[in-house]
Amino acid sequence: MGGITVSEFELPIKIGKIEYTNDWPIYQNFDPAQLSVPAVIHSDLPANLNRGLLEDRLFVTPVSSFAYGTRSDDFWLLPDLSVSAQNAVGSILLFSRKPVAELGSGTIALTNTSATSINLLKIILDKRYGHQPEYVSMDPQLDEMMERCDAALLIGDHAIAAAQRDTGYIITDLGLEWKEWTGLSMTFAVWAVNKRFAAVYPELVTEIGEQLRISKQRSVADLDPVIHEARQKMGGSHEYWEHYFRQLWYDFGDKEQQGLALYFQYAYELGLLDHKVNMELWTDNMMTRVNE
């Protein structure tokens, strides 16, 4: 990792936000103007947030779990924040003409927007079913994907929109597949902080983490504002969106860490990661050590 100087942390600090609906409850009551250092929210696709973090252009952001895993030693994780699923996730969906257990060595179209979901699919197909299909990266357009391939992976709002159509395809929820197979939850995104940024702004890192957790707690206690915004943008009923947000899990406790650790272990065993991942969480003790 290249050296980073204080001057490279341009103000206002950009705080990443996933463009999809799945992290809205964490940000619904978060106002960066209330932080002690000038900051703004930078909303983008997961793949762009991942690149921003890995290329040292974005220093505090949600990222796909896999992207974090590729360079985990360079980042702290903010505690108690994730986009996880204890069962079905509702927005990481495989569309196919055959059940997933029968896909064999066919061709699967992959959305080009999330390495975590892509590699989760590869892990499930290889480790659970013994499949080694051919993978093709395509734009997230279900009809075009299925014209060329036997199955198609969509994530986020593209998956939600496709699932609401009567396509006739079998829909496999990868969160549910993972839970039925491993008995564990699956964490799709974590909140990562560049360690060198944290060394310069330790109080800000703690402040951002606390404010995001407070926002999350308020949103989970009253989802109506989030649901209203989702209906305005995406359509659908109040009941649909309440079920969607309720089935997601935004904590990152011991159980979520255990599930993610197993994901990283399998990714390493399949050669998807070239090193074992040791997750490190930011704590007040870290802030004290930085200030010493």
Automatic annotation (TrEMBL):
It catalyses: chorismate = 3-[(1-carboxyvinyl)-oxy]benzoate + H2O. The lineage of its organism: Bacteria, Bacillati, Bacillota, Bacilli, Bacillales. Keywords: Lyase, Menaquinone biosynthesis. Catalyzes the dehydration of chorismate into 3-[(1-carboxyvinyl)oxy]benzoate, a step in the biosynthesis of menaquinone (MK, vitamin K2). The keyword rRNA-binding does not apply. CDD domains: PBP2_Sco4506 (cd13634). Its EC number is 4.2.1.151. InterPro entries: Menaquinone_biosynth (IPR003773), MqnA (IPR030868). This is Chorismate dehydratase. Pathway: Quinol/quinone metabolism; menaquinone biosynthesis. The keyword Protease does not apply. It is an enzyme of class 4 (lyase). Belongs to the MqnA/MqnD family. MqnA subfamily.
